[in-house]
Design brief:
Elements lengths: L1 H17 L22 E2 L2 H8 L5 E7 L4 H16 L6 E7 L4 H6 L7 E5 L8 E2 L6 H11 L14 H10 L4 H8 L12 H7 L1
Parallel strand pairs: 1-3, 2-3
Antiparallel strand pairs: 2-4, 4-5
């Protein structure tokens, strides 16, 4: 009868649980059609890797919960931060709703809200925790010093005279000399002179 079937199902479930054979079911949603419509990009499991692991971009992500008071307090500064970098060719501001993206937030071991992480070629896929202040000025200062590419071979309009001269000097140099010069880049605008581009094209 139905009771016997239900009892057998429960026994089977318990047996699999004790044997560690059950797979955890965590929620995720489809990519919203308007995920990139606003300045702060909506990140979900299915577009996170494409956006956050983009070698051409540095990405700052907020992992949040809609009911979180601290998240609500951060929202005005976070949205204004997104507006500030909406037209940036090197910086992306995004957020992840952990109440629907359980798998993604579990993968990055999010334990409290909001959790801020940044991703670039140096952090790899694991990312790094953002540890600075959460006011707008602190967030912008961090991006300016650590994420934003101020100068690149493709867009020398953002370069200082010193950087432009440096790029011109290094063109056509032997690989060994370029490698040695790259070690000195940290002394030029925090090292954000498009180091990967220099390695590939100078």
């Amino acid at each position: 009868d139905d009771y016997t079937v239900e009892a057998e199902n429960i026994k089977a479930f318990v047996a699999k649980f004790l044997a560690g054979e059950l797979k955890q079911h965590l929620m995720s949603e489809e990519i919203p059609e308007d995920w990139d419509k606003e300045a702060v990009k909506v990140l979900v499991g299915k577009n996170f890797h494409e956006v956050a692991m983009n070698a051409e971009k540095d990405v700052l992500v907020e992992f949040y919960a809609p009911w979180c008071g601290h998240c609500k307090a951060l929202a005005p500064a976070w949205n204004e931060l997104g507006d500030s970098y909406a037209g940036s060719s090197s910086v992306v501001i995004g957020d992840v709703d952990c109440t629907v993206e359980e798998d993604l937030c579990s993968r990055f071991e999010v334990r409290g809200y909001p959790t801020l992480k940044y991703f670039n070629t140096e952090t790899g896929e694991a990312g790094e925790d953002y540890q600075s202040g959460r006011d707008l000025d602190s967030l912008k200062e961090f991006i300016s010093e650590n994420l934003e590419i101020k100068c690149s071979l493709e867009d020398q309009e953002k370069c200082t005279d010193k950087e432009t001269a440096y790029i011109a000097k290094m063109r056509g140099k032997p690989a060994e000399e370029v490698a040695a010069a790259l070690k000195r880049l940290d002394g030029m605008r925090g090292g954000k002179i498009g180091r990967a581009s220099c390695r590939e094209r100078v």
